[in-house]
Design a protein that fits this description.
mainly beta; about 70% strand; about 260 residues; 13 strands
């Protein structure tokens, strides 16, 4: 317990310093796993994400895992995501003296499917794993009301203008996206200690690497059924991605797992 509190204090201190310039989020997750036999396990999970103190996403999912050997397993799953979207665009035409801003804020659903293959080896007290995951996400078509602010300049020097603000309907077309997620993780089994620290890095590849996540954390195994986890995650956005609309982000993760 003492070591867990030290890890949490270090993570929270790091987040507090780093989040001065970047955005900060808190992700809460809960997972329930049912072992059908020695090789087959089914699971249910839920997650709530908060960004800058406001709820930004809910999700619920189901999964199934099959263990081929001690070092190789495969899994498949589906998740329903409901997230908040912030859309903004600005059109500026100097010659025509038109300045136009369009803003929309709305909640929408996404459907996500994934298939994973994970290999794991043990070196001393270290566990090293590599997970390759194909992920497909579909965002259904959505019609929303957005606010348009249109400014028309009355003279060339831009000192006089007329501004018109109105609402209009905008339909965002349905869109699907394939992503390959590659995660390398190292964990350490501390002798006679229920706490297991770990670190990982994950690449998100959709014809180019547009996002990288780095994570350090620890899981506290209370007993055979219950596990609590805490982690710090840094999300580095490398390129544009209209499906997720995520910023560079510092994240505190809190998790609970139940096995039966």
């Amino acid at each position: 317990m003492k070591r867990l509190f030290i890890i949490m204090a270090v993570m929270l201190s790091s987040i507090g310093i780093s989040a001065q310039n970047d955005k900060f989020g808190v992700w809460h997750s809960i997972e329930v796993d049912k072992k059908i036999n020695k090789k087959f396990t089914v699971g249910f999970d839920g997650e709530m994400r908060m960004l800058q103190g406001h709820t930004s996403r809910w999700s619920a999912g189901v999964s199934a895992t099959y263990k081929f050997t001690k070092w190789l397993k495969a899994s498949a799953g589906y998740s329903l995501l409901r997230d908040k979207n912030e859309r903004y665009s600005c059109d500026y035409t100097r010659n025509g003296f038109i300045d136009e801003e369009k803003r929309a804020s709305y909640w929408g659903n996404r459907h996500r499917f994934n298939v994973s293959l994970t290999g794991e080896v043990r070196v001393g007290r270290f566990d090293i794993s590599l997970r390759e995951r194909w992920q497909y996400t579909y965002r259904p078509e959505k019609t929303v009301t957005r606010t348009v602010s249109e400014r028309e300049y009355l003279n060339p020097d831009g000192t006089e203008w007329e501004e018109n603000v109105y609402d209009e309907e905008k339909t965002y077309r349905g869109k699907g996206k394939n992503v390959l997620r590659s995660r390398l993780q190292v964990s350490y089994d501390i002798r006679k200690c229920p706490i297991e620290p770990y670190a990982n890095g994950e690449l998100y590849n959709a014809w180019n690497i547009y996002k990288v996540r780095y994570t350090v954390g620890a899981d506290w195994k209370i007993n055979k059924q219950n596990t609590l986890g805490v982690s710090y995650k840094f999300q580095d956005m490398r390129g544009s991605n209209d499906d997720d609309l995520e910023p560079d982000l510092h994240v505190l993760g809190l998790s609970y797992k139940y096995k039966f």
